[in-house]
């Protein structure tokens, strides 16, 4: 009994140690915030277009009834990583036939217009979320974030941070394929 | 000097390990000595507490008894072990004294950098002054170009753009290059530099606007290595790794002899190769310094840090001048050098350079616009 | 160190904001007080380990406004918290809800105290028997006083 | 050249540590006096070489030698000199070097001052200390070399985080480390005792000064960090239950328990295996803190760059040191003889309860801090454990602790006289209740918990004073006699009184500043007036001022009370262009009664901002200074105990003079 009690601290330390070892897993990001939206219907929202752009606005109804799942990307011109991500998303739209909708988060319209003119505009629709309220509805924790929404309006996948770099692109591509968001026979 | 200090430190370390050899043998403190001292102190403590009336006589008695028992136990315990202390093992100590510095030296010789000098910030005033000078020059140059009613010579704008680029002010560089890009005399290099500046201004991303400039650059000169470099970077960022790789490799293979930008190419190829599991390339070692800022130098500059850039700018003008010593037939080179000297407010040298250009222009058709430019410049400089 | 995260927030969000600002506040002091209390229990999602009440991040400001909006509409405190939780999950609750996954957390302190009571009580019970006073034999007594005498000089001051 | 000397000196320190980790302990088991003695020289040599390395790094910071990568990344030529110096320990590498320096200092301290410790114990202890040195020196050299060079050097550095450019924070890590790392030597003593298989009152006496020194530093370090947070962060909070704060708090809690349980071991030869366990766990928690801060394991606001390789290396060190020592404990502790007997009401029992509560509180903080990680590992769910949890779980335990804290010193060893005890504290209990009721009557409002806390603090304060009065027989004997008695009391006794009173004072500060804080937040244009806690404050506008390496918006606030000018405050919001970050410099009018705390900011809404208004945040924090005063009392109390002559009972000189029955004069 005495020996058992004396051994308890050691056992506790080993248990904690195992958790620490697990926690050091380089794939684990302690800052990642889980989403409650996965497998849930996309939140209701109705956003006006960005003034000065011809791209129409975005509402929840636009996400429903599509034959394939669509991608919703939250972006802003002030967001540095969004630039890098923009090129990747553009490629997905141009080469793979992905359908991309945008939520322009807390961005001055003139900045957004200039940004899209510089970089190109791959978005079918862009809603301007000036107040950030729609961002909250989506459980946004930062920009950029990217969601895949099914034809019935269910959120299938969420990517926090820019889809940049081989690992991120691979994960995103997998998610797109799994969701069936890419048209059949598309390149790649 | 530094090795002398290392030797000194090593000797100190050896001395420290050997130090016990100097100590006398007998003064080892044992438990049998140390513990009763403390217990005796506790006995006195009890007496004091009792004197203060903090504990009763009966409590004191019980406490004393406990301590006495401990004293007895300690004495018996240490009696059992007493007298077994040894003083041997000196050889081990010497071995340790030798081994310790060997370990330290072994580590240091692999990981240390004894050849790198220290450089206190205060001792680097000259270096700073040069950087400041470049900044001042850039400001002057810009003022002159902006105030020029004809919009300023393209060479001047190019120089300004390159200077900004190397100062890390990519957005300003873009502006400068764009002035030239809209002119008739824009060359392939103009567009490849513009592309680079745009990319750098956008956190290294070759955005569509940069791609447009690359395309123009390749239209004008398909062999422009900088343009191909950024084109490849564009595809790399588009995740078209294979295409990015092939572009670089095929351009590299077009060259027969060594050119400095190959280093940059090779580095980028190998980066892509590492990411995409493709074969790496090895450059045949070539001459390490080639005169004149080449397109690949420009490409390399994008990977430099600020200090390197500053260094780069400083040497740019002199490198140009040196190169022209060897290649006196480079008309545009002389024009650029002359312009640079003008900006540097060294009119004599500027005049000299313009004269060289003028001489070369003799062979050009009379309609060459550069003739007028040189004449105008010489007039301005009073040469 | 906390403010390092602010820098991070400023990088992620456009408008460097502050903790609660006057234009966010409700005129009704009771409602405002409730809003402040609720805000202290909600975690700012971009600024780790910080409540939205003191966070400078833009999204924290949006959340504060949202909390007040819900209160004005007539939600109870629990409803407001539930509203935010529905969007951000348990992660935003600085006070984890009592549910199976957090039983271990919430009962741990009680368990620790109980273990303490158990161990301490056991120890006290086992140690309480009266100690027998056995005087030392005269030989031992001599040894001890000899040792004490030797050590007298050690500390006499 | 200088950085290279530092680098080489570190290598030599590692080599000496290697020698020290083997020879003395081998000497102790083979009874080889020469080997045992080598520990003293190597321990002092280690501190010499590590100090050379530290000085070399500091020199590089002072002259801004940008050939050293660490200087480039953490300094800037324009930084004020003081913060260049502080930059030495501002980074992961530099702070680790400081960590190792302190480790070596404590080892050398035992080698130098431990003349009353028997050779064997000292040799084992120093060898164990050297094991830790070897672990951390190799960690430093292999994964985090502070002397990595850059050539050619960049023109200027990347600046130190402006938040760290603050006196409080510059001094906070060294003190904190002194505490953290100071427990290493206690750990080494404990492991040595386990190896030796013996723990006795003498052991407790040898360890006590080191425990005290570490505890005092840790107390000061935590208090300084808290103080920094209070005036630098701009909203008047002083404790946030952030993981980084928690990991420094846990060793403090356990260290406090250790300090008390070691007394029992010293006086009564009891709690021996428990004291050993506490010694091991206290340092283990310090190591855990180092690990958490440097591995990026938890989401925390920590300053160090995250590198999984480093995390793994430290985890390895943890596994060896903590795992090894606890395994040794499991093996050897049961063989230790139980100590003296005592009754359920006795000083021992009181200290036992104190220890159990402190241990339970530590367990709670540890569990709360790590629970998100544990849950994530098991279920994948992510949750947050924040201040509401800690407050709910921790505060009741502390209140219970306070009850025993007041009671404990009245109890005598072995068994206390219950009737006498009740007689002594009756008066104190009544007084405490009166104080709490008076507060209730006067303050009229505030949370119930706060009144319970007031009751607790009053009880603790009065009980501590009463106990002290009893000791010197205040008012029982003539005052002169009392004064003489007070002078004759051992310093440790005064130390305890001061420290316990310090806790009571600290509590009052905490209660005042949380329960009765008032706050006004307004948009202010020049001329705006705010009234708070009897002060009328006029905002006279803000101007932009240029600092040495920042630009600041400085507000001018004129504070009046009843029409009379009290003071003028200048809160600032600073922007550091090189580091691209902002800091809040609050302006505080500090009095014992409370702080008038002001800060200024740019309004979040552009509209308000464009209208030329500023956001003023004005707080009145009653009694908040008592927190720092209480902490200072704790530190002074610790220092007094540390200076107690009994801790330096010398090695015995064979007494030549005849024994005397006389009580040594004091």
TrEMBL record, chain A:
First-listed, main subcellular location of the protein, grouped into a coarse class: other
Pfam family, one: Redoxin
Highest taxon in the source lineage: Bacteria
Lineage: Bacteria, Pseudomonadati, Pseudomonadota, Alphaproteobacteria, Rhodobacterales
Any single GO CC term annotated in Swiss-Prot or TrEMBL for this entry: outer membrane-bounded periplasmic space
Record field: transmembrane: none
Keyword annotations of the record: Cytochrome c-type biogenesis, Disulfide bond, Redox-active center
The family this protein is said to belong to: Belongs to the thioredoxin family. DsbE subfamily.
PANTHER family: THIOL:DISULFIDE INTERCHANGE PROTEIN DSBE
Gene source species: Maritimibacter alkaliphilus HTCC2654
BP GO annotations: cytochrome complex assembly
Cell compartments where the protein resides: Cell envelope
Domain named Thioredoxin: residues: 36-181
Single GO term (MF): disulfide oxidoreductase activity
Keyword tRNA-binding in annotation: no
Entry protein name: Cytochrome c biogenesis protein CycX
TrEMBL record, chain B:
Entry GO terms, CC: cell envelope
Domain Cytochrome c-type biogenesis protein H TPR: 125-246
Segments traversing the membrane: 6-23, 91-109
TPR repeat start and end residues: 331-364
BP GO annotations: cytochrome complex assembly
Keyword Membrane among record annotations: yes
Primary subcellular site in the record, as a coarse category: other
Keywords of the record: Cytochrome c-type biogenesis, Membrane, Repeat, TPR repeat, Transmembrane, Transmembrane helix
Compartment(s) where it occurs, according to its Swiss-Prot or TrEMBL record: Cell envelope
Protein name: C-type cytochrome biogenesis protein CcmI
Species classification: Bacteria, Pseudomonadati, Pseudomonadota, Alphaproteobacteria, Rhodobacterales
UniProtKB/TrEMBL annotation, chain C:
Membrane-spanning residues: 103-124
Domain CcmH/CycL/Ccl2/NrfF N-terminal: 9-148
Domain of life: Bacteria
InterPro entries in the record: C-type_cytochrome_biogenesis, CcmH/CycL/Ccl2/NrfF_N, CcmH/CycL/NrfF/Ccl2_sf
The UniProt record lists the keyword Ribosomal protein: no
Membership in a protein family: Belongs to the CcmH/CycL/Ccl2/NrfF family.
Descriptive protein name: Cytochrome c-type biogenesis protein
Species of origin: Maritimibacter alkaliphilus HTCC2654
Automatic annotation (TrEMBL), chain D:
GO BP: cytochrome complex assembly
Cytochrome c assembly protein domain mapped to chain residues: 89-296
GO terms assigned for molecular function: heme binding; heme transmembrane transporter activity
Domain of life: Bacteria
Cytochrome c-type biogenesis protein CcmF C-terminal domain mapped to chain residues: 315-645
Membrane topology: Multi-pass membrane protein
Record InterPro entries: CcmF_C, Cyt_c_assembly, Cyt_c_biogenesis, Cyt_c_biogenesis_CcmF
Role played: Required for the biogenesis of c-type cytochromes. Possible subunit of a heme lyase.
Source organism phylogeny: Bacteria, Pseudomonadati, Pseudomonadota, Alphaproteobacteria, Rhodobacterales
Family: Belongs to the CcmF/CycK/Ccl1/NrfE/CcsA family.
Main location: membrane
Subcellular location: Cell inner membrane
Organism of derivation: Marinibacterium profundimaris
Name of one Pfam family that matches: CcmF_C
Protein known as: Cytochrome C biogenesis protein CcmF
Any one annotated GO CC term: plasma membrane
Residues passing through the membrane, by range: 6-29, 41-62, 96-114, 126-144, 175-195, 207-229, 249-265, 274-292, 312-331, 352-374, 394-413, 425-442, 448-465, 495-516, 623-643
